[in-house]
Amino acid sequence: MICPNCKNENPENLTHCQICGYSLIEEKNKNDNNFVYAGFWRRFFALIIDNISISLISLPLLFLEIFKITGFIFGWFLLNYFYFSLFESSKKKATIGKMALGIIVTDINGEKISFKRASARYFLKFLSASILFIGFIIAAFTSKKQALHDIIAETLVLKK
User: Fold this and answer.
1) 3-state DSSP percent of the chain in helix, strand and coil, to 5
2) Model pLDDT for residues 80-130, shown as the tens digit of each residue
């Protein structure tokens, strides 16, 4: 293992650098993440629950003034955007559907994502959907179960 402090090469079994004494334990933990990635079907069913949740919220809003002004489709788009971006960047790291199925969205280190990253991930889903939803389908075949939007946004969907 290479020490991030002095760049010295150390045997894997050491807990501290031979040269500078820097603790290598945290570096080993960063490199040895034992993530359990959420598979395609778990993510798919979470999306179904999320769409039901959004529908239950949006249908009553159809009668409110904001939807009359902005139009239902634009209002629905805004609701979707804020629903996914706010929930996934929250402390829970998950939408209602993801919480129900025990999965979370994180960065590649397993940490909470920012609203900016969650927003980018949301808009990148349009790219994933653009060619016959292949960007979503690849999550079934990648080693980290990442869809195209996850790869580009550098996010993971993990079992909690």
Assistant:
1) 55, 10, 35
2) 999 999 999 999 999 999 999 999 999 999 999 999 999 999 999 999 999
List of residues 6+ apart from 49 with CB closer than 8 A: 96, 97, 100, 101
Specify burial of residue 1 (Cβ count, 10 A radius: 0-12, 13-18, 19+).
Answer: middle
CA–CA distance, 149 with 133 (Å, rounded to integer): 11
End-to-end C-alpha distance for the chain, whole angstroms:
29
Dmax (CA) of the chain: 69
64 Cβ contact list (under 8 Å, min separation 6): none
Identity (one letter) of the amino acid at 42?
A: R
**Residues near 96 by Cβ (< 8 Å), separated by ≥ 6?**
49, 50, 53, 87
Q: Kindly state the tokens that stand for 50.
A: 């999320």
What is the C-alpha separation between 90 and 78, in angstroms, rounded?
Answer: 18
Q: Hey, what are 92's tokens?
A: 């829970």
